[in-house]
Hints:
The structure holds three protein chains of three kinds. Chain A is mainly alpha-helical.
Amino acid sequence: xxxxxxxxxxxxxxxxxxxxxxxxxxxxxxxxxxxxxxxxxxxxxxxxxxxxxxxxxxxxxxxxxxxxxxxxxxxxxxxxxxxxxxxxxxxxxxxxxxxxxxxxxxxxxxxxxxxxxxxxxxxxxxxxxxxxxxxxxxxxxxxxxxxxxxxxxxxxxxxxxxxxxxxxxxxxxxxxxxxxxxxxxxxxxxxxxxxxxxxxxxxxxxxxxxxxxxxxxxxxxxxxxxxxxxxxxxxxxxxxxxxxxxxxxxxxxxxxxxxxxxxxxxxxxxxxxxxxxxxxxxxxxxxxxxxxxxxxxxxxxxxxxxxxxxxxxxxxxxxxxxxxxxxxxx
Amino acid sequence: xxxxxxxxxxxxxxxxxxxxxxxxxxxxxxxxxxxxxxxxxxxxxxxxxxxxxxxxxxxxxxxxxxxxxxxxxxxxxxxxxxxxxxxxxxxxxxxxxxxxxxxxxxxxxxxxxxxxxxxxxxxxxxxxxxxxxxxxxxxxxxxxxxxxxxxxxxxxxxxxxxxxxxxxxxxxxxxxxxxxxxxxxxxxxxxxxxxxxxxxxxxxxxxxxxxxxxxxxxxxxxxxxxxxxxxxxxxxxxxxxxxxxxxxx
Amino acid sequence: xxxxxxxxxxxxxxxxxxxxxxxxxxxxxxxxxxxxxxxxxxxxxxxxxxxxxxxxxxxxxxxxxxxxxxxxxxxxxxxxxxxxxxxxxxxxxxxxxxxxxxxxxxxxxxxxxxxxxxxxxxxxxxxxxxxxxxxxxxxxxxxxxxxxxxxxxxxxxxxxxxxxxxxxxxxxxxxxxxxxxxxxxxxxxxxxxxxxxxxxxxxxxxxxxxxxxxxxxxxxxxxxxxxxxxxxxxxxxxxxxxxxxxxxxxxxxxxxxxxxxxxxxxxxxxxxxxxxxxxxxxxxxxxxxxxxxxxxxxxxxxxxxxxxxxxxxxxxxxxxxxxx
Lengths: 330, 249, 324
């Protein structure tokens, strides 16, 4: 397990997945593309969740990335997929830089509600903005890559798949390094006890704001990827139920493992396509039941299935504590 | 010489309750001061005021001549006051070593790193040294959620020491520690703490601990200081015997 | 600078002779906004009242609340259609739809609290939020499975109270009836909480569940009752609005967001706050519909965001410090 978490080894895994795309059947390819791009935004929610805050409004940055890219693509003819992902990340990140410091004072449900409110402000504005197509949104052209135009749909799909897997893969590698870093550990400390973090001389709000901006960058990039796959954008990107689905992926994954985010996202897409195929109008039913089961039986997400086992094994047996357990009641 | 901590005319009320009533205290460097008093006498309020968690209604608080009465706990910590808590305030899912590493990270002047591993060799060693001083080496890699109350208390103190504070406030360091281990625990704490911090203020209910470790005792009663002086003198004081130590022991 | 004057639909104004420079709203438009706003506020208040009660007692921000609003609307639509098909008088249908929605919500509410929510007590408030989100998702599809995805129209009771006119303004009586109904609901809840023994016990539980339990209060019963009662209010409001709207999927997610805004503005857990929040949201919505239609949706969330930024505890709540 340890060897696989070396950045170079992870890079190898990402490339292997890209090559795998060559042999995947067409429907799996587009499903995997969606799963990869959803993983990216969910990964951002996981980053933020490590500070103990759940954002119910990631759709805000998702839409910011999507609309930003779509507008720039349509007005300046910027169609390169890699550039589009970067523009998406920048749009999300800039908005995150404005909102992050303001919102980092809040915790718990207030944090969730405020993010939700902000995303709904954008949704409300987009629905009524006729210049941006109102609630119908508008279309964008096919993305290109390094000057290549992809006319064969199979090739175009593979290109999108590769860009999505690589973008998300790189974000995943960065997140793995980040989670183990000093800042990553302090983020977990903020989650556990933000007041003590302050008492140690660290600004808990600042830590939350930093993680918030990272989450916003990931969400913006994910919005760009999603736009490329759909070649269409509408206000639904910012609606709270869209954000809710990404929260679902993050909760399913838990905050202990990056790989779990990809597994969770893929599982979700598989379940979605099967339930659409065989049981129409039961998608949310499945989702809800799934979510309840995870909260009940795997409160730390599917990532805890392998990480906690890992953790236990490197603990030496400490001698039985001699001190009394009783707490004074004052 | 400027005292480490100087408090002048400090007042704090919670509604009708007077938690700090015109407190004036000066603590010179190197002193070990014990705060005693019944529950609700204002000891913890005093600690909360000095560390910036509570803002005084009026009065001055100075650390080495510098006014800190309006500072946040974070700024107060950065200026050199650390504290431990009556109920240990730990990062419950992290290991003891990780808890101390967070505390060490907090002492850095530069921004925290995105890439450098938290458990880098030097940081981990620093943490282990601190844990070792309090006899906690064996618990380093166990999540604190698995540790007993007394051990948590010591981890809490180890974290407070990470900064090498000028003034260390310990809120009931031996509560939750079994009677047999009280002295050995306190021996360790005092020894370790003297290495890292010059001046110590500790809230304590056990008068044996007070007489043994304190140079000076401040007896609190309903927000006021009833007596201030050497332990022998203060503990023999008639008012202190009536209102603080009483027959309760 | 030319003054901007907003007029009610169909209203005209004489050319500017300099006499009305400072008038920005015509009287008719002002009245329209106030009345439309109060109508909107009335049913929103009933929904938000349930949400804020549940939060006050159980400390749960219930996303599934919107699902119960939709459930109430669907049940009402079914009952009304059934009564109309049998040729029974619409007044009877009106009464039956309210009773049926309230009863079903009470029953489902108790089952939900005892059967599901109870398992998660003591967990983090965000976890509970996610649990209610899961229930919201379940309800969405369950209503689709029972009633299908096509809009249902059940407007027979809408004509029950005739039309009312104020000068040039015409209103459907049913809409105006909503206002006293909301006031009555609010007063009933306020009276129940503040002037009855049960209410005092509930208030005690809100204040401190541990101490109430040690005094012999059956906390579990209070929780189940309060949760079911809150959901009943949501369903009741759903039933009330059903004749006004076309009942279709998507209702719940819109309503829950609106009622979130209301309770956040007023302060979570506060009955008075819910009333003020509902009036604010109702008026803001009516005003933007008439003056600034582009802002219809985002004005409300903007108010919510601003209130959260300035007074996160809401207009009617006091902040509590954490004990260390």
